[in-house]
Design brief:
about 20% strand; Rossmann fold; alpha/beta; about 100 residues; two-stranded antiparallel ribbon
């Protein structure tokens, strides 16, 4: 099982995390919203986006980009960024055209 990180706990990020988990991957889903993180981990649902979608146990939500889980390849849902935005907790920049 490979590890995948998804940055963004909105509709797009939640859907990507569920699809990756369905493919047998261990997924870390980062969100800046504590309510979303708590509900995903406790209730296996995202209360704000795609709320009727079951989230597999292999999806772990976090508020911390630099948590102690070994990172996997990162997918940046397009809606997470504005032009040349900085990712908090990292030294990375992502430019969207």
């Amino acid at each position: 099982m490979s590890r995948i990180s998804v940055i963004g706990g909105g509709s797009w990020g939640t859907a990507l995390a569920v699809i990756a988990a369905g493919g047998g991957h261990d997924v870390t889903l980062w969100s800046r919203d504590a309510e979303v993180v708590g509900a995903i981990n406790a209730e296996r649902r995202n209360p704000k986006y795609l709320s009727d979608l079951d989230i597999p146990l292999s999806v772990h939500a976090t508020l911390n980009l630099s948590n102690n889980r070994k990172p996997g390849p990162v997918d940046y849902p397009r809606s997470t960024f504005t032009r040349n935005s900085r990712i908090d907790g990292t030294d990375r920049r992502r430019s969207i055209t």
